[in-house]
Here is the input.
Amino acid sequence: MPTTGPKESRRADYASTREQADGAWIAQVEEGSPAWEAGLEEGMRILTVNGVALRDLIDWRWEADGDVAELEVYVPDDDEVYACTLEREPGQDWGVDFTDVLFDGIRTCVNACQFCFMAMLPEDARASLSLRDDDYRLSFLQGNFVTLTNVSDEEVERIIRCRLEPMNVSLHAISPEVRRPLIGCHADRGIEVLERLLDAGIEVHGQIVLCAGINDGEELRRTLDWVEGHDSFTSLALVPMGYTKYSKRFSSSFSEDREASREVVRLLEPYQQRARRERGITRFQLSDEFYLDADLPVPSAETYDGYPQFYDGIGMLRSFLDESDEVTSSRVDELRAVTEWLHDTGREVLFVCGEAAQGVIGTFCDSWASALGLAVPCARPFAIRNDYYGGDVNVTGLIVSCDLLGQLPADLSGKVVVLPEVMFNFDHVTLDGDTLEHVLSEIGARGGVAMVAQTGPHMLLEALLSLS
Here is the structure.
């Protein structure tokens, strides 16, 4: 299926936050694989590979890179440790999956960032939502952004030796007098580590959370100048600080100031132009919110350099718009089939989304109708106002069950309610602790047909085709 968006767009499967034991817990063993042939089973724990204790998936990949691996395996049923040898053919996978990517627990944050979203949560939020991870290994394995303020010298050497790149690094500001109040007393360590990685040629994707009146304006220029002088920075994303109604520090952001948002766009343009001219990439990129807040057109796909920071909200709108054009030009027969099924069953599609995405999803619905010559679209966005978090929170990924069910009509007869996959975690639970099963049953009780889909036009169409 063609797409103009990122080639591999999957969500991060974050590591477990439970207390860890030594080694790697086995979650699954593929039948017929080398691991299966050696007798490994779910629930066993691999302690060492070739005599090296396993801290994380990186150790496993690094140490078990050959065609033979000598293991020490703990078997809970026997409460014993056994030696085990794995052998495989060149290119063959070992056939074993683990419960977590980190075996020794998550490195937590040592900072006190003024804009920390965790400090703006409601008091009754689930405890797991307040865990502030800041683990360089999750940066490499899953794309999490880290500050590097808690990285030891030994870990710096490991990153360089094992070429753990790209690293996704939260920079925020470069001047010490700005960084320390913004991030906390460990701010200098983050820059020290980052410079060592850059000097070693480690590729870095950077991020700045922009706070009006704190790290914008002249400080932003200084930070951009610093990044411009380091070739290993492949991309730098600017995202606006978001706040909730529980924030004790912030009550406004760029979302309420169109001119301030436009000033950020203008400030970044010369850096983007130089990068395009000198390196052939845009390199300096703004999150979609800035263009929405500034009431400016979303740039072309070429601006996003292959979408390296797609899940930081960089280029999602452009990708959606381009996919919408693809679907409404090359999949007209499938759109017609869905439309006929909706007409025959007397149904209308509601695409649930955050308020920020309402316009772009509405564009897709209008393009669908135009492609088929429909006077009235048979699908429309249904934007959920985020009362749970409040403030300027308006993105689809932070929709919660209480807002969803509180704002959907009591009578959903004749409605197909398409829920965004991103509002559920990998346990199919919402941020306010509701389950997918309960949400689906509530919608069904109101007479609606509910389904979950990824929020790209191709995947939305695929989901609807599965019904029709």
Notes: Residues 1-19 have pLDDT under 50 and may be disordered. The first helix runs from residue 34 to 37.
